[in-house]
Automatic annotation (TrEMBL):
Key words of the record: Cytoplasm, Ribosome biogenesis, rRNA processing, S-adenosyl-L-methionine, Transferase
Protein family: Belongs to the TDD superfamily. TSR3 family.
Designated name of the protein: 16S rRNA aminocarboxypropyltransferase
Stored Pfam families: Ribo_biogen_C
Organism taxonomic ancestry: Archaea, Methanobacteriati, Methanobacteriota, candidate division MSBL1
EC numbers on record: 2.5.1.157
Role description: Aminocarboxypropyltransferase that catalyzes the aminocarboxypropyl transfer on pseudouridine corresponding to position 914 in M.jannaschii 16S rRNA. It constitutes the last step in biosynthesis of the hypermodified N1-methyl-N3-(3-amino-3-carboxypropyl) pseudouridine (m1acp3-Psi).
InterPro entries named in the record: Tsr3-like, Tsr3_C
Binding site for S-adenosyl-L-methionine: 17, 67, 89, 108
GO BP term, example: enzyme-directed rRNA pseudouridine synthesis
Signal peptide: none
All copies of domain 16S/18S rRNA aminocarboxypropyltransferase Tsr3 C-terminal, residue ranges: 41-166
Cellular localization per UniProt: Cytoplasm
């Protein structure tokens, strides 16, 4: 299963999870949008269709792409969306030190690990996060939703399951 990252080089290199994944040969990184394969599934927090186990065949064949850019600039990734299948991750809570405890604002490594868990590849997800001292915390904070999401059939079911985990003010 190929994991890709588009790195917009907008974050502190010392804290960048995408750079660490690339250095550990766990992802293939792209720094130019035109070089990114078109057939991948793009993890995109701004799209309406939820990532689900139904996406596994495409991910197995073509790969999964996360975007590493500042959350302040997330709406500027429009060019990457063009012609690609985009999916958003369901409700999860960040464990990374920058956004700890904040819902839906995951780091790149957390996003990829979450997607792998949803596809039923928990060991591979754990492998991605093993180099981060807070990695185990991501699983602790999200154990129940990740388990539930991995049992869903499709995007619509993910959205229904997500409702169980949303705090009252978000529903």
């Amino acid at each position: 299963m190929k994991l890709f990252v588009y790195n917009a080089l907008e974050c502190d290199p010392e804290r960048c999870t995408a750079i660490r994944l690339e250095e550990d040969d766990k992802v293939e990184a792209f720094y130019q949008i035109r070089k990114i394969p078109m057939e991948v599934i793009l993890l995109d927090p701004l799209t309406e269709k939820a990532f689900s186990p139904a996406d596994e065949e495409i991910v197995e064949q073509h790969g999964l792409l996360a975007v590493d850019c500042s959350w302040k600039n997330i709406d500027s990734i429009g060019e990457i969306r063009t012609g690609r299948e985009s999916r958003s991750l369901p409700y999860l809570v960040a464990a990374n030190p920058t956004h700890y405890g904040r819902p839906t604002i995951l780091s790149t490594v957390e996003s990829l690990a979450a997607a792998l868990c949803i596809l039923g590849h928990r060991e591979k997800a754990e492998s991605l996060l093993e180099g981060f001292k807070w990695g185990h915390t991501f699983f602790e904070l999200n154990e129940e939703p990740l388990e539930a999401y991995s049992k869903a059939e499709d995007s619509a079911e993910i959205v229904r399951i997500q409702e169980e985990f949303l705090p009252g003010e978000m529903t």
